[in-house]
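Justification of computing resources. Each target in the renewal requires a structure prediction run like the one illustrated here; the chain below, 404 residues long, is used simply to show the kind of job we budget for.
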Amino acid sequence: VRAQTADGGEPCAFTLKKILLNEKDVKSVFRGDCAFFQCEREIKRGQLLYKIGESSSPDPAKFKTLPIKAKTKIDISIEVAENYIEAKINSENIWRKQAALKPALKHPLSNETLEKIFSEANSDTLRAGNVSAQTKGNFFLPLSILKELRREFWKWAETLPLSDSSQKKASTQLKKFIADYKPGADFSEKIENVFMSAPGHQSARENGVNCFRLEDYNPNEIREKDEIILPSFTPEKEIPALHKKIGELLRRGIRRFRLTSISQFELFKGQKNISLAASYPIQSCNSLAAFEFRRLGAEKVQVWCELEKGEIEKLIKMKPPCRLEILRKARIPILFTRGKVRNKICEIRKRRFDVIKEADDIYALYPQDFLSIPETAGTDNFYDTTKISGKQRENSFNYHRQLF
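Resulting structure tokens:
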């Protein structure tokens, strides 16, 4: 490289040893790039630089460091009819060429040929994305004319202020993401109470909603406004039977379901006019989790039972686009096992535990003291007394004093 002073003084020549672009070693840069040139001499401000020669290594690996100028990707849809050829870019800009096409006797123009020819872009700024073609008839078009039309199309396309189709898709997805995450409505004025009791003890038909376990419900007694809670433990072999039972309930008019596993949302995919609730043991600890469950289809999300009062209040203030629910009363299992454990356990601090069979060879360890949390303004309430006896209800250990 030769460095020439602005006043026309004696120039000096030097060798350029390294070019750094964005802290990466490269071989060349484009107009407008801001790069650092490392050389063997001091170059003063205002000097003009001229390239006077070069020597390069035959090592092809070094060419991987060359900066690549990104081309704008465009999607093209082509349509050929008897009197015109039309190409759309990103379903918006339309290029049309009038033509009088004749019927083909032997080799009609195919969609594959159109897609292949128009995909070949001799452009410095554009490149083909998804290319699709449709011919409305069997027409003859010489390959030389087809290539000429392609060149005319790409020359026209370069004059348009186009944006990358992938960028447009990303922009659409971002707008959808923002729309999904807008704060929801205020549900505090229409609080709902849901009660799940042992079989034969449902008594909330008038002042709330009854919730039945799937394995306990009686098809002859259940009403349309009642709710069904699905089992949290469903092995692969039992999924078809679960899907069949859900279909039977839907045919009977049941529209409220309480899900206990994220995978269960897939069982209701495509169903309309149903109400889904994400419930324990699904963990919903913050507003982002509530937003995601809403996107999956949940109209109600049960707040994780171990959140403290301040955390619940912050979650409510975020106003997610779904109803929030507090697990007001329940016995929470602390251990699941396939091992054979005696029915009752008493630990060193005199806390007592019950071992209850949940499924085939699956046992759960429940503390005899049950969770009891006071009402929280702005949330629905869920009461699970399926494993709470009358004596336990009289002598309950109030977790409220510990959690709040």
